[in-house]
Amino acid sequence: MVKRNKDLNDVSDNVIVWRYMSLDKFQYLINEKKLYFCRADLFEDKHEATLSMIDKEFFRYSEENKKYWEDERKRHFVNCWIESPHELSLMWTAYAKNGVAIKSTVGNLKNSLINSPEDIYLSRVRYIDYDRDSSQDAYTPPNILKLLFVKRSLFNQENEIRLLHSDYENKDGHIKSKSIKVDINVLIDEIVISPNTDDNFLDMIETWLQSKGIEKCVIKSVS
Predict the structure, then answer these.
(1) Residue 141 pLDDT
(2) Is the dihedral of CA 97, 102, 103, 107 positive or negative?
């Protein structure tokens, strides 16, 4: 279930979020009824879950504990959503050129995970300059959770809200991803298909969802 943490900012339940994905990832979500969480060190951005220059001071980083921080990155798994009241053309291009987007809310996202035995945190991503800024707050004890909810300013157009699950048993990094059970009917408000697809694609998705017993509105993107 989604847990609160005093050092992470709460997000209102009525905030609208989107997840853009390829058709095969959408099919996996529906078939398995699981959200995919990628290990933090395996994202395309190699700065993910690393220490900024100032963070290295906060956490007393040194060559002696370098291995610890390399291993630490392998213990955290992330599922990403985009905060926006409407769909975004840039996200179609980047993540779902011929795929699907799920529209939901933060409240539905939380409720869809309420029966999950895993501890999950949810918060907005904060975008920082890794040369000048810190993931931490001055005059408060360092908290590694804050580190896991920051990204480089280069990505600030994504307006990311993320889910985070930590597995401290993954010490050797043999686990590369996690799949966590989710209530599909609670999670999904609406399904939007890529503007690059034709009407047959929409019909196919509707028919397939009905065969799975899922009655959700499916529309084509207006982008």
Answers:
(1) 87
(2) negative
Q: Where are the alpha helices (DSSP H) in 96-150?
A: 106-112, 144-147
Catalogue the E-assigned strands of 13-154.
16-21, 34-39, 76-83, 100-105, 120-124, 126-128, 150-152
The letter for the amino acid at 111 is N
pLDDT the model gives residue 107: 98
Based on C-alpha coordinates, what's the Rg of the chain? 18
pLDDT digits (tens, 9 = 90+) for 64-121: 899 889 888 999 999 999 999 999 999 999 999 999 999 999 999 999 999 999 999 9
Q: What's the sign of the alpha-carbon dihedral 196, 16, 38, 27?
A: negative
- Cβ-in-10-Å burial (0-12, 13-18, 19+) of 56 comes to middle
- State how far the Cα of 31 lies from the Cα of 46, in Å rounded to an integer: 31
Angstrom distance (rounded) from CA 150 to CA 134 = 9
The alpha-helical segments, DSSP class H, found in 62-168 are 66-72, 89-95, 106-112, 144-147
Whole-number Å distance between alpha carbons of 196 and 175: 35
Q: Is the dihedral of CA 80, 24, 42, 169 positive or negative?
A: positive
Burial of 81 (0-12, 13-18, 19+ CB in 10 A): buried
In the chain the first and final C-alpha atoms are separated, in Å, by: 34
